[in-house]
Amino acid sequence: MSDFLLPRLRTLDPYVPGEQPQDRRYVKLNTNESPFPPSPRVLDTLTREAVSRLNLYPDPLARALREAIAAEYGLEPDNVFVGNGSDEVLGFAFMAYADETRGVTLPDVSYGFYRVYAQLYRVHPVIVPLNEDFTLPAENFVGRRGMVALANPNAPTSLAMPLGEIERIIAGNPQNIVLIDEAYVDFGGETCLPLLSRYPNLLIVRTYSKSRSLAGGRLGYALASPAIIDDLNRVKNSFHPYSINNLTMLAGIEAMRDRDYFRSCVEAICAQRDASARELAAMGFSVLPSATNFLFASPPGMDGLTYYRKLKERGVLVRYLSQPMLARHVRITVGSADQMRALMDATRDILKEGTA
Ligand SMILES: Cc1ncc(COP(=O)(O)O)c(C=O)c1O
Question: What lines the ligand 1 site, CB under 6 Å?
Fold first, then answer.
């Protein structure tokens, strides 16, 4: 840190992405990426000709991409905002709707970036504790002051909240934006998209990083009323109008249009997830019912950190989160069949060592 950095930025705790160690090759099950490559239509659209147009700026309104997303969800393009990953969409939403005076309400256990944005923008977060079984108490998100933000399904718990509960939160905050982060919804959650026409305070955030195999392309989007989309554009155009590059824009259009590929990837991941959950349970793990592309699991006879370390020694990376309530668990991304076999083999080895 230099002496020039603003004092208020010196105490930031930046987001720590899942580790990408370079010391050896790992079976990487720690960042919830898709094990499948992008749609073949994405590969076909990224031609030499497309690359040769990189001398030109991208369309700052991302019209063709927003049209493709809107068409998929039966919306109008002015219901759609696109950003450089959903992290950027979340960042713009915090900039637009949360400040020192209004605050923001967040679950105690959720996607870590929400608290980082709150800190960056000097927003006071009201933190709502989870129930002991890791579910969210909907009643404690009702009647708040300022934006309410939560992920459904939640991360890292993998649990989905029923749509009725989500509606209760949206309806119970008519003066506030309710941001529902649906990063994982394609893997089994109930989307709150049907509520969009009835609730002008609803802001849905989605990503291409999980179910559409484009984490490296950096593309996320928001679905909301035209007025909210206009707010987000005001912020974006005061910060970075060209936040999505030409190639990602083309990739995003084709990934959205290729429904068959999308469905086949999601189905394969869900089948692998359910088989892996059963296998872990048979080994004595406690595994939460996942509506996502990851498992939140607690190993028998050891804490999450020990299991994480022993897996890493054996070349398998999962995510351990150090919050006290999560200490017994790790988050395991659902990978390919081969990756999950490697996880199971390493786990059997670890459990055998424990009993030897
Ligand atoms: C709940 C949730 N929201 C948003 C994101 C950010 O996704 P991206 O910025 O890749 O779109 C993640 C990433 O893991 C996530 O878990």
Answer: 32, 85-87, 111, 151, 155, 181, 183, 207, 209, 215, 220
All structural domains of the chain: 7-37+260-355 (3.90.1150.10), 40-258 (3.40.640.10)
**Given phi > 0 = left and psi -120 to 50 = alpha, else beta, which region is 184?**
alpha
8 A C-beta contact, residue 296 and residue 190: no
Structure tokens given for 70: 């809107």
> pLDDT tens-digit profile of 315-336?
999 999 999 999 999 999 999 9
Helix, strand, coil % in the chain, rounded to nearest 5: 45, 15, 45
Atom of ligand 1 nearest to the CA of 110: 1
3-state secondary structure of 58: coil
How far does residue 87's CA lie from ligand 1's centre (Å)?
A: 6
Question: pLDDT tens across 110-148, in order?
Answer: 999 999 999 999 999 999 999 999 999 999 999 999 999
Q: How far is the CA of 33 from the centre of ligand 1 (A)?
A: 10
Residue 86 alpha carbon to ligand 1 centre in Å: 6
Predicted TM-score (pTM) of the model is 0.97
Dihedral sign from CA coordinates of 73, 215, 161, 228: negative
Query: Of ligand 1's atoms, which has the minimum distance to the CA of residue 219?
Result: 11
- Give the Å distance between the CA of 250 and the centre of ligand 1: 21
